[in-house]
Amino acid sequence: MRISLRQLEVFDAVCRLGSVTAAAQAVNLSQSAASQALAELELALDGALFARIGRRLLLNERGEQLRAQAAELLERASTIEATLRGTTVVAPTLRIAASRTVGGYLLPERLAAYLQAQPDARIELAVMNTEAVVDEVASLRAVAGFVEGSVHRADVVAHRWSDDAMIVVAAPSHPLVAQRPTVKRFAAARWIMRERGSGTREMFEHAAQLAGFVPDVALELGAPQAVVRAVAAGAGLGCMSRLVVGDALRRGDLVELPAPFLDLRRPLMVVLRRGAYVGAGLRALLDALAPGVVPARLRR
């Protein structure tokens, strides 16, 4: 065999961290030793695995083909070593990503329950918009992503695990609170929206298009609570998950507007890199956060 686990370990670290210097520190090697290991791996595999851009290393197509397999081999090797030595497998830190709605309002309590049941587990949660979450999973910077709405990319697979509903909200003083909302009135209103790339924005604009209007977006904000505050202050109408606006509705800061002409139901999805290895740690985490989502074929 022309390749070694050490070479794959360096390769995996470079994939995650983007440079040989950072990878060397992560795997406890000198920079020269890490560079040599990577060079030997590329030589053994008859070609470069990264595009060199200054000091940054970006995976090329051949590197993308290797990455998921390398991660699987490294996890399996760690399990074998621990099993034969009779020691406990050191739980890796699992980095997951979630959209701002799911990551801010659904996952924290579930993660707390999981960590109470699995005290040795280590989780890193990155919260960003849906488009960025899918990018994180596709590049294997995150082992799984949790988003709302549909996912349209060939390099990932998405599994439905629950459902969510968005609602239209306004400040109690907004004129539409005292009127019957119609498509025409919604079209004439000002809207406060999340940024482009968010699942909430995409879902609402799609529903509006099907209803026959294009929302007049007066203000774009990158955080759900910022939208809540702007709408409560009277800046315009908003459309958000009931999870996000629940507290504001109970306090009376916002009022729900009926919108029977808008289909605002949406699925909640778990996103995995196509072909990526789902190890025992990730399977356990997925079973805790999104029960039933791991397909039987991935349970090995």
How much of the sequence is in beta strands?
Answer: 15-25%
Flag low-confidence runs: none
> What is CATH's topology name of the largest domain?
D-Maltodextrin-Binding Protein, domain 2
Q: What is the total tally of β strands? A: 11
Which descriptor suits the 3D outline? elongated
Mean pLDDT: 89
Whole-number count of domains: 3
Spatial separation of the terminal alpha carbons: 25 Å
Number of helices: 12
Secondary-structure-derived class: alpha/beta
Major β-sheet annotation: 7 strands, mixed
SSE topology string: HHHEEHEHHEHEEHEHEHEHEEH
Considering DSSP H and I runs of 4 or more, what fraction of the residues is helical?
40-55%
The CATH level-2 architecture of the largest domain is identified as: 3-Layer(aba) Sandwich
Classified by CATH, the class of the largest domain is Alpha Beta
What quaternary form is this? single chain
- Computed CA radius of gyration, to the nearest angstrom: 23 Å
